[in-house]
Design brief:
Length: 370
């Protein structure tokens, strides 16, 4: 039977070396300053769009890591509502999306506040308020072991077993104390933001205090730790970067939960934070190009063309997978093949579309020319 970090005598005495990652920590700080500077120089509307897109990516991807796929439209409406940008929100079909948007904005707005049990319970209610299958807004209390398991029934592999429920209240009391003590000005202050964030995430995931939602709340805690330590809401999506290499995330976490010597975990998390920061720079550049594109073409496109282009740009910096072709255009606009072909030919003539796939026949596809 495996032994886990919380069963060891040195539990909570995390040991690590930063020798191998000093360069990456320096680059992270430089990128942080650069992104902040670029953001400050943007027009207010563009700045807001960058922030919303980043929060949206975090909300969608933190769920996708857990194999859940919320409605993008509903999450976006919830984010805008909680930012005070939408007052008349259409009836949301996806109730979990509403809570997810609320959680993302609350994490951002309250980053300076000390962490409390009440705040964690409130986040849990936001996330899982409509779920009748789990105990919401309270620590888990079931007697059976809390395990992270994969594999088919009868062939399960236990990756991790958390401390028993009876230990959770005391463990969480200590975790909350540690989190607040390591904050800026605290008696155990950790000055390097990605380091504090890495430990906070691992520590919380190890306790696994809730019946469900531990991963999503654990990543919210990681974001809070980053924002608190740098002194402003962080503009990056850790979850987007984690989701792109989900297996590496789970493997790194599983290894880290076997020892309290966590140098490899810190290294993994710093690299992830750095990649997330690079993606944030790309997102800003993408949003600027998008703004210029609509300025250039706003009076030249019909409603169908705008609908298709907006849908394509939803895919973000990586582009619309497979490009746009007549079949997809018809699917999005519910128009005829002749109209779709004419619309796309016009977009090519305007240089709003560029060829992405082989020219000619069914394999012809296009990307937005940013």
């Amino acid at each position: 039977m495996a032994t886990y970090n919380w069963q060891l005598k040195d539990w909570r005495q995390f040991k690590f070396s930063l020798k191998e990652v000093e360069g990456e920590l320096l680059i992270f700080s430089e990128k942080l300053g650069r992104v902040s500077g670029i953001l400050e120089g943007l027009p207010e509307e563009t700045k807001q769009e960058v922030i919303i897109e980043t929060i949206l990516a975090e909300a969608i991807k933190t769920s996708e890591i857990e194999g859940e796929y919320p409605s993008r439209k509903d999450v976006l409406s919830s984010i805008k509502k909680n930012l005070g940008l939408l007052h008349d929100v259409e009836n949301m079909k996806d109730k979990s999306a509403a809570g997810l948007g609320e959680l993302m904005i609350d994490v951002r707005k309250t980053f300076k506040d000390a962490l409390t049990e009440e705040k964690l319970f409130a986040w849990h209610r936001m996330l899982l308020g409509g779920n009748k299958r789990v105990a919401v807004g309270q620590w888990r209390s079931h007697e059976e072991p809390m395990q992270v398991v994969s594999g088919a029934l009868g062939k399960e592999k236990v990756h991790y077993e958390a401390p028993p429920s009876s230990k959770v209240p005391e463990e969480m009391k200590r975790f909350i104390q540690w989190f607040n003590d390591t904050a800026p000005g605290g008696k155990q202050e950790i000055k390097k933001a990605p380091v504090r964030s890495a430990i906070a995430h691992l520590y919380f995931e190890t306790i696994h205090p809730f019946e469900d939602g531990n991963g999503r709340i654990g990543r919210a805690i990681a974001e809070k730790a980053l924002s608190q330590t740098i002194g402003r809401p962080v503009l990056l999506s850790l979850s987007r970067t984690i989701e792109a290499s989900r297996k590496l995330y789970y493997d790194s976490l599983e290894k880290a939960q076997q020892s309290n010597e966590i140098t490899p975990w810190i290294g993994y998390f710093i690299k992830t934070s750095l990649n997330a920061q690079t993606e944030a720079e790309e997102q800003i550049e993408f949003t600027l190009k998008k703004t210029k594109f609509f300025d250039r073409f706003k009076d030249k496109l019909n409603h169908r063309q705008l609908t298709v282009i907006r849908r394509m740009l939803e895919e973000g910096t990586k582009g619309f997978e497979g490009g746009m072709n007549a079949r997809k255009y018809i699917g999005i606009t519910k128009t005829s093949k002749a109209t779709a072909t004419r619309d796309m030919q016009q977009l090519v003539a305007l240089k709003a579309f560029v060829l992405a796939g082989a020219a000619g026949g069914r394999s012809t596809s296009y990307q937005v020319n940013l």
